[in-house]
Amino acid sequence: MAKVELKKPIVEEISNVISDADSVVLVNYSGLTVAQDTELRRMLREAGITYKVYKNTMMNFAFQGTPCEELCKHLEGTNALAVSKDDATAPARVLAGFAKKNPQLELIAAVVEGSYYDAAGVQALASIPSREELLGRLLGSMQSPIANFARVIKQIAEKGETAAAE
After folding, report:
1. What global pTM score does this model have?
2. Along the chain (166 residues), what's the average pLDDT of each consecutive run of 10 residues?
3. What span, in angstroms and rounded, lies between the C-alpha atoms of 61 and 34?
4. Chain-centre distance of CA 161, in angstroms?
5. Which of 31, 61, 62, 154 is the most buried (most CB within 10 A)?
6. How far apart (Å, rounded) are the C-alpha atoms in residues 66 and 136?
7. β-pair partners for 106
């Protein structure tokens, strides 16, 4: 079997992984110990993120003609892909959190919802809270005025009761 035929399934696998992804983050994992890498993979798996190491040439072929094509210029060294199909900021958040404790992990670049971000952009994405957290904040800010109004009405009613009792 020719080498091209052996590599084609790997390129197709990468293409399938990135095809309908909300975000694709490229990281350099060199310098991580086995224990650190195992911990990183566990954290990513718990967050619902696909993390896999592929050869740079295979990623280069798979990225051609996709929104991830911008990542091709960063494909040198020991790289891995973190892909999320649900939460656009989750890979950047988890990886940046891990990189704070383990500076060997380097965030290189990302494509989030079709837009390219360099390393600084990935750090900025990491600071954005998750969708659930943002919805919780929105709900809290919507409930706050109602709760304050209810407290004021209750205090007025209590004052009215004490004035009537006197």
Report:
1. 0.73
2. 75 83 87 90 90 88 83 86 86 88 88 84 76 74 76 81 61
3. 28
4. 54
5. 62
6. 34
7. 28
